[in-house]
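Title: Comparing notes on inverse folding

I've been comparing how different people in this forum approach sequence design from structure. To keep things fair, I'm posting one structure and asking everyone to reply with a full sequence. Here's the target:
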């Protein structure tokens, strides 16, 4: 789980935290842009959209439109919702191709039933677990969001949320409200044994019960252990990992190349040198 000492949602409400200064980072910080793009790519992969067919997607917590840029590159149309005026201003300055809407997802999604073919959300859902006002009830706000989102999705579509849960109780709160709203599905965890590369994706099915996708890097863990989230208040430490991230390793590179092949992109052939660590030059 993510550490609570530096969590932005503990600093201020989202519309206050994401001010003009913070919003500029999402158009100037190359590292932040790279991470956002990678998570968006993985979220779209988990949506399992029809190949070669443009879809109409919803981006919840769209911010400056970095996720939307990837959706546009893939040939999809999208609508972005965000609570921060400053973030949406940056998106407008960047001239993103999607439509933008200022709104609080805790108050529900104001769209007609069956409007969207899918939904993605990057690093936004955990904000609903905090009560920024006396009138805010996290369970009620989550339920209001999930029920209206369920209605706005076409039957058989998916919603994928990348999130940073603070603890197991947050995961249980989020998933329970999603299931109560009518969704099926569960949590997909990429690289579960890595402290740095580990990512949580809530993969929800609207109207149908699908097979939960497999998390990346799960083949390196014990085969007897499921890749789905094991709810525990304790943080596990793997001494043999020594804090080393699985990212950029051979398995990670092969998985990324395979994903790009499935997307129809041109990828170099795999060789014995793929992902090989080179000795430093003196």
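Reply #1:
Here's my take.
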């Amino acid at each position: 789980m993510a550490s609570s000492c530096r969590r932005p949602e503990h600093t201020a409400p989202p519309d206050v935290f994401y001010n003009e200064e913070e919003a500029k980072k999402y158009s100037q910080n190359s590292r932040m842009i790279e991470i956002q793009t990678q998570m968006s790519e993985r979220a779209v992969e988990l949506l399992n959209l029809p190949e070669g067919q443009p879809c109409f997607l919803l981006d919840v917590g769209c911010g400056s439109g970095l996720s939307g840029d990837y959706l546009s590159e893939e040939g999809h149309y999208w609508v972005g919702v965000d609570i921060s005026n400053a973030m949406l201003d940056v998106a407008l300055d960047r001239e993103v191709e999607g439509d933008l809407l200022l709104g609080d997802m805790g108050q529900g999604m104001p769209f007609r039933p069956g409007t969207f073919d899918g939904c993605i959300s990057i690093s936004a859902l955990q904000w609903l677990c905090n009560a920024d006002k006396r009138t805010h009830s996290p369970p009620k706000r989550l339920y209001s969001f999930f029920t209206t989102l369920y209605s706005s999705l076409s039957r058989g579509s998916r919603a994928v949320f990348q999130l940073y849960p603070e603890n197991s109780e947050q995961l249980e709160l989020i998933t329970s409200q999603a299931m109560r709203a009518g969704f099926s599905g569960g949590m997909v965890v990429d690289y579960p044994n890595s402290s740095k590369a580990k990512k949580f994706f809530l993969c929800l099915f609207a109207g149908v019960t699908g097979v939960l996708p497999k998390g990346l890097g799960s083949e390196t863990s014990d085969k007897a252990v499921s890749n789905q989230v094991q709810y525990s208040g304790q943080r596990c430490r793997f001494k043999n990992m020594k804090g080393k991230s699985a990212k950029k390793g051979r398995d990670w590179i092969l998985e990324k190349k395979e994903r790009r092949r499935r997307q129809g992109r041109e990828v170099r052939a795999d060789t014995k040198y793929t992902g090989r660590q080179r000795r430093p030059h003196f």
